[in-house]
Amino acid sequence: MLIRHLIGWPLLLAGTGLMGYSRRVPRAKMAATGSDWRWALPGFAIAMTGMAIIG
What we know:
Order of helices and strands: HH
Structural class: mainly alpha
Helix content: 55-70%
Shape: elongated
Number of helices: 2
Oligomer: single chain
Distance between the termini: 10 Å
Largest sheet: none
């Protein structure tokens, strides 16, 4: 249980950080939705992997 948390939480936080960063990239790189999917999509995948490992 502890090992799952030690692996899962850093992945969840790193993925959330990538999704947050995707909102702050320069405007020239932003899509119409206001975020850069090249950062948001991998961040989402990493965050979901972390959640799957935790739970």
